[in-house]
Design a protein that fits this description.
Structural class: mainly alpha
Number of strands: 0
Number of helices: 3
Order of helices and strands: HHH
Distance between the termini: 62 Å
Helix content: over 70%
Length: 81
């Protein structure tokens, strides 16, 4: 009887942890997609010619909209990218 309760507690804890991880990952993916869409639109419509390097992708993934705007601003000022 004790084994069944212990297994049930472990399964419930695993489900809660999986839910919390997926919630964080979902936010990260949405942030990344929005940031990259803004960066792509800036490249396509404004002709910025910003290359997609791992640094640019990381900034867009972490920063989202603010990261994409930061990359465009730094490129426009001639400081980076």
């Amino acid at each position: 009887m004790f084994f069944e309760y212990g297994t049930l507690v472990i399964i419930i804890a695993a489900v809660v942890v999986a839910y919390l991880l997926l919630k964080v990952v979902k936010h990260f993916i949405v942030n990344t997609i929005i940031g990259l869409l803004i960066l792509f639109a800036g490249n396509f419509f404004l002709g910025l010619n910003i290359t997609y390097t791992w640094i640019v992708l990381a900034i867009c993934a972490i920063g989202g909209i603010a990261g994409a705007v930061l990359i465009i601003l730094l490129h426009h000022l001639g400081l980076a990218f």
